[in-house]
Each structure stands twice: as structure tokens, then as C-alpha cells.
Amino acid sequence: MRSNLNFFSDEKFRSIFFQTLVIGLFALGIFFIVQTTAYNLEKRNIATGWRFLTDPAGFDISFSPFINFKSTDTHLDVYFVGVLNTLLVSFCGCIAATILGFLVGIIRLSSNWLLVRVAYIYVEFTRNVPLLLQIILWYSILIQLPRVKQSLEFLDTFFISNRGIYSPRPVFENGFSYVFIAFTLALVSSFFLRRWAKKRQDETGKQFPVVTSAFGMIIFVPLLLFFILGSPLSFDYPALKGFNFKGGMVIRPEFIAMFLALTIYTAAFISETVRSGILSVTKGQREASASLGLKKSWIMRLIIIPQALRVIVPPLTSQYLNLTKNSSLGIAVGYADLVHGFGGISLNQTGQAIECMVIVMATYLTISLTISLFMNIYNRSIQFKEK
Amino acid sequence: MKKLLSILAVSVFAFSANAGTLDDVKNRGFLKCGVTTGLAGFAAPDDSGEWAGLDADMCRAVAVAVFGDRSKVEFITTTGKSRFPTLASGEVDMLARNTTWTISRDVNLGFEFVGVNFYDGQGFMVPSALGVSSAKELDGATVCIQTGTTTELNLADFFRLNGISYEALPIETNDEGKENLFAGRCDVYTTDASGLSSTRAAAADPGKWVVLPEIISKEPLGPLVRHGDHQWGDVVRWSLNAMIIAEELGVTSENVDAQKSSNVPEVLRLLGVEGSYGEMLELAPDWAYQIIKQIGNYSESYEANVGPDTPLEIARGLNALWTQGGILYAPPFR
Question: Least buried of B75, B99, B191, B205, by fewest C-beta within 10 Å?
């Protein structure tokens, strides 16, 4: 009876058949797209290839805090400037959004009526207005600041205008490296001190003032060394010369607008993630720890947050990915990120649209996968360890 | 297999590019013309929402040549960056978008510049309060610059050549440039001198802005089409030339009907009374007559859009006819 049925009644065969079919169709589709593109490029006499990467760019990028970029540098250098600028705003944005998001998430669960309302309005407003509009709004506000000649000044060292925030730039002199080494050593030894203290507490129950001693080590040892070495640090102050401030450090309004908009927008989502994480910890946990006589702050730090993190981290990862990808909107305010510089200006000056876009997409993919990788490792480390 | 797929690909995705552009336009019933996002005098919506300007007239002239109707055109706005992909992909039939004719655009990008409808050069505009009288005094200034343009490259070259520094503030559109310049985010705006005049005319108080004397580049602006479709290239090229020749021959939108009985042979050829030039281009016999009747000759378009009596106040200069001290020159209509 069974042998009369055709192959399709065999579940294993059927499943292999359809999977092969889908993969085959997918491969054919990709092949088709590549073919069409190559054919049309050839038909329109558009030269392809990667040689343009080593050609001089011919234009200037002024926002390049890490690389000294000149117009004689290549399109490949434009790419690196863009990647670093994308990473800069994404990194700063992720850190700030996490801090703000946690704060707002916790505030929304507090019992202060006013704070809860304000946090609620903030979250609902920023989550529901397109990010692009928020970026443009911040930028429009920032360029309405006073002009450079009428800069707001504080103590003759900080200047705020619509060209950015100018502040003194530290100049490290001979000997400062020792201070830096001392600082690093203090950090490392604090880490080991903490491990040792925890172990001792677990074994003997005796506590050790880790925070105070680590603090003392990290602050006072380098500071002491700094004065012994005769303060090997000076500052380069900004001064108005000609059209602009010369010297000092500057944070540009394009960066500030991107940073603020990305942070405030993403923090709203993170705060909801944090709130749901904390709410996911059952009431019994809180009551049980309270009945053990734990302090309120300890309950949060030792009982609630570790359990909440299991719920918070996976969606937090996708918020980090969103923030990084959203940084590509920098083009709206002229922030020289990857899409604006390499994926925009280089693309347009060379006409190598497909090559540039492939590189830009591959770069975002790499950045995103790297973030995911590290967040997954972290996520694994905070999961319940069954003993 | 490869060939088969290619043919399939073409028939599925690229059938519009397969036929001639002229046939496509005729079948569609209107022309798709790529213009700027708004540059007064060249292409910008006027008070009644109609696109007006030298480039807009160029689009209309081609629409008239093909359909005999100046309204048969859809204006598609493009930024400095989007203009080339838009043309290459066939989303527009032609660009009339203050685009500088350069070798790399003509050769490497696969386009065909069919002529020059405005000879321009790159200049600098600063607030007169800065007291700057030459571009060489701009050391350390913040310069607003449209990205993806030839002006961006000229700017870098100019400052490098003169050994002075600047800070580039990249912008996408002319409006963004205006906003940043008027707010003082940048000290200087640099683009084609015509664009500066246009921006200056849009300022609340044009007297507060000066255009510096240096012109640092050649910027021949002209309409362009995709490379390889010569028939369509000819239609656009001769639509432009017809307007220039009409000025040379003294044919205007007002006297064009009377000129039909002129005794000048070239006028008769231009207006389709003699010869079969329309047929050669696969257009109506009176295509050039209609352009002059409905749009006017080059001078009329110039005076109405950018000339000394408009807010832009640009003298003819290089754009005068070759017979009048300029370099505007069209091949003979014969």
C-alpha cells in the first residue's frame, strides 16, 4: 500500500525537495540581478572597477578628528575618515543612550508622580517623531546660536557659537606618560583588589572597603606623581583670530546635533526595555529580599537588576544596532560619516555608485555583526548558571 | 545561458532603454526633465507654481520640439548627487540642471553633453561686513560648499594653490547653503557666479552681500543626455541651437509669424518653410518655429530669467553672441 504512494508523501524527501527548490530560486534570483546590473552598466558605458580607490579625492573633509585629511589623499582615506566618524558618533551615542535610558526606565517605575509624568511624555514624544526630523530640529536650534564673533564665553576659556563649542586642548609634555602608566596600573590593581575582596568575603564573611581604596588608588597615586613630576601638562587655549577660533578643541554642531538626536531617540526605546526588564522580575523576589533585611539600594543592585538584565540585553543589542545604522542620517546635517563622505561625495565624484554602495553596506554589516557578537557574549555571561 | 539570461534581463528590466529615447518620450506623451531642487533664474517654481528659468525653458523647448506643446513636460528635481544616477537609470530623459561639462562626466559616466546654455565660473560671496575684497584673504574661513560638484574640487585646488587654509561645511542643496550662510555658520558661500547672484537676490537685504572678483574656474553649464542614443542627443542639441540661431537671425517670439515670409534663406530653413530638417530629426516640420513661438529665442529666455532686469542682474558677458563680444556660437542651420 505504502509503496504505491509517490515520493511526495515521504516527509524527509518533501522537505529536502522544497528546501533545494527555494535555495535554487534564490541563487537564480541573485545571479539574475548581478547579470542585469553588469549588462546595463556595460550598455551605458559606465566603467567599473576598484581603481578609483587609490585616486586622489580632490575635495576636503574638515570634520576628521582622528586622521589629518588633505584633498590630495585618496578615496580610500575618505573611507577611513567616514568609518571613524561613524564609529565615533555611534559609540558616544550608545554609551549616552544606555545611561539616559536606564535612568528614565527606573524613573518611570518610581513613585514620584511628576517625574513619572515627565518621563512618560519624553518617551512618547521622542519615540513617535521620526528621527530625521529630530536631527534637523537639533541642528536648526544649534545654528541659531550666536555667530562666531559674538560667541558666548565662560571664563575666557570656553566659547559657544554656531560654529561649535571651543574648549582648551590638553598638551601632554615630557613625563606625562608616567602619570598615564600609573593610572592604568591603578585601574588594573583595583580590578584584582575587587576580586580578592569578593573571594575573601565569600570565604570568611569579612568585608573590605573596595570602593574607597580603589578610588584612592586611581585618583591619588597618579595625581601625586603628576605633582612630583612638576605638572607635565599645559593647555592650548582657543582664541578668535580672523574668521574663526584658532587653537583649542572644538565640538562641531553637526556632531552635537547627531549625538543629541541619536541619544535622545534611542534612550526612549531603551528606557522601555529597561522598564519591561525590571517589571519582569516577580514581586516575590523583592519581598523576599526585603524580608532578609537588605537595603533598598542593595535589592535593586543585587536582586532586581541581575535578573532584569536577562530580559533587557537582547532588545538592547538591537537598539545599539539601530543607533549605529541611524547614524547614516548624518547626511541631513552634513555630518561627515561613512554614507556622507565615501557613500556620497566619493560616489558622486567618481560615479562608481555600485562599488561605493557595496563597500558601505559591507562596512555596516561588519560593524553590526561585531556589536551583536560582543552583546551575545555579554548576554551569555549574565544568563542563569544552573548549578 | 549567459546570453539568454542577458536578453531576458534586458527585455524584463531595461525595455525602456532598449527603444530610442525619442520614441519612448513620444509614446509616453510627455518629457521627463531633471532640474535643480530650486535655483531662481535657472529652474525654480514661480509665484504661480510653474517651473521657470533658463534650464526650465531648455526642458520646455525640447517638449515643444517633440510635441509642439510647452506644457508636455514633467520636471523632476535632482540634487547635485542624485542627478547622474537619475539620468543613467532612465528616470529622466535629459538633465538641464546647471551641470558643468567635464571630461570625466562626458566620458567615464557615460553621458553626452549636447551644448552649453550658460557659460559660468565659480565665485565667492561673503557678507560685506567682513570687509574682504579678495578670495585670497579668506585664510581660515569656513566655506559652505555643495558636495558632489565640480566647485567642491575647484575650491580645494584654489586654496591649495594659494597656500591658505579653510574649513569646508558640506551642504546638499542651495537652500541649505543659504540657511547656513545667512545664519553665519559659514563665512563664505562658493558656487557658480550665477548661483551666487541667485542666492544674493533671495537674501533679505542683498546689499549686505558681496561677490568677490575672483572667478576661479570655467563652468560651461549645459543640458546632457545618456551616451549612445545619438538621435535623442540630436533633438536636444538642436533645440538649444535653434534658440541661439534664432537670436542670431533676429527671430523672436513676437516676429516669428512675420519672419515666415522673410527673404533670408536660413530663417526659412529654421522655421520649416524650406527644407526637411524636421523630418531628419523625426520631428514636425515646424518644430523650431514652435520653440521660438512658445519659448522665444535665447536672448528672450535669458533676459526674462537671469538678465539685468531680473533680480539676478547678470550681464550677458560671455553669454553674448559671438558677434557681440561673447562666445555663444551655434553651428549653421543648413
Answer: B205
